[in-house]
Amino acid sequence: IISACQKGGQWRQALQLLDLMRSEDLTPNEVSYNAAISACQEGIQWQWALDVLMAMEDELVAPNRFSYNPAIGACAKGHQWQLALTLLRSMQQADFEPDTVGCNSVIGACKMGDRSRSLLTLILLTEVQHIASELMKHEFLRSEE
93 exposed, middle or buried (CB, 10 Å; 0-12, 13-18, 19+)? Predict the structure, then answer.
């Protein structure tokens, strides 16, 4: 049901369903959380996406790439490039190799970022583009095997 909320852009309902599951002593799994985070991304609700990501960790449900990418995307859509970059780094620290989806979201967020910080944005953008370039090389090499 939460996945249907995600596809319909109904982020409020997705969050309400997570709360309902908890109140009924049902433990949401990573699929439920990921769908709620994706719904928040669609609704450009980066604060809620981060709250759900933190709730996963609090409830000992391990986030995965499908948790991080929509959270990064929500931050990017909300023009929160610093948070998007922080999440990308957190993803790496959690031993998940960033993919082109996460990297492209961060690049887009940096491009939309505060122009008064253009030098810092350029440095961060270069760092993320390097990560994306390495990922594309790695993916190409894997496809050649």
Answer: exposed
86-121 pLDDT, tens per residue?
Answer: 898 888 888 887 777 887 787 777 777 654 354 465
The whole-model pTM stands at: 0.76
pLDDT tens, 40-53?
999 999 999 999 99
Closest by alpha carbon to 69, among 49, 45, 54, 48? 49
Q: CB within 8 A of 61, min separation 6: which ones?
A: 27, 28, 29, 30, 33
Q: Sign of torsion, CA 47 52 57 63? A: negative
Dist CA 33 CA 30 (whole Å)? 5
Listed in sequence order, the DSSP H helices in 24-98 are: 30-42, 46-58, 65-77, 81-93
